[in-house]
Every structure is written in C-alpha cells, then in structure tokens.
Write a structure and sequence with these properties.
The chain is mainly alpha-helical. The chain has one domain. It contains 4 helices and 2 strands, in the order ββαααα. The longest helix has 18 residues. The chain is elongated.
C-alpha cells in the first residue's frame, strides 16, 4: 500500500482509518520514538506531552506512549508544562 499524505481516510479491505485517528496514531508513534531513543531529540517531556495533546491523545494514551503512569502525565500537565 502506498503512503497516504493527502489526509484522506486510509483505505484497506478490512479497515478505514479516519484522519483524526491517523493523527493520533502518528502522535503515539512520536511518543514511542521519544521513549525508545531519548537522546535523539532536544525536546523535553513537556513538549512531547504538549504535541500529543494537540493531536488528540488522552492522558492514558500519552502515558502508554511514554511508558509511564497516567498520574505522572497528569502531574506534568498540572505543573504547567502542557
């Protein structure tokens, strides 16, 4: 399947991924990359959380992507980081 850069739903015989879900999936991938390779970026955890929230991820989804607890993500948000 070719890459879809149009923002249109991704078609698959058994699956259609709407643009909002696609953005969430890309944001989750972004968080997992940050968790797996923390030295590769100059961004802070607060910046990662902020990007993920702008893309519609919930606190639980952000926590899963970063490999941490929802309580820590909530605390980071409450601390004014995101």
């Amino acid at each position: 399947m070719e890459a879809n850069t149009t923002g249109a739903p991704i078609a698959h015989p058994d699956l259609v991924i709407e643009p909002a879900m696609r953005r969430k999936m890309l944001a989750m991938d972004f968080l997992v990359h940050a968790r797996n390779d923390p030295g590769s970026s100059r961004r802070t955890v607060d910046e990662y959380i902020s990007v993920a929230r702008r893309h519609g991820l919930t606190v639980d989804e952000i926590a899963a992507g970063l490999g941490t607890s929802s309580a820590l993500v909530t605390a980071a948000i409450a601390d004014g980081g995101s």
